[in-house]
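Appendix B, Record 12. Input sequence as logged:
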Amino acid sequence: MIHWADEVGEGWDEVLAEMTRVFELSRAAAQAEDSIVYVVRQDDLLGRRGAGNAMVATGLLSAARTAALEGARKGWTANVVAYDEEADREAVQAWAQRLLDSGDVTGELVRVGPGHVGKTLP
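Logged structural output:
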């Protein structure tokens, strides 16, 4: 499963709705023992686009790292791709698909684009 995080506003209700939706999708993938890749904006991991988007992006990073523990025991993976606004969507999708297909890379954050260079990172 590849999940592109939705943009949310600053309100807790929007964040909760997105996180609940992702939880449901993730639970279904885990129960089916399917690998998961979450796709988030790099700026959201850095908190540049508001608290709501930052909560979702960092929540998905945490979820992937937690799910990777469970998946490692059962043979599926969980990863995150973070992309810059200038990144080509097809390139981002290709990286997500590579991680999904890898079978042996798990719990990782792959950054597409140079926007993170020189920044303090999660």
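DSSP finds four helices and four strands in the chain.
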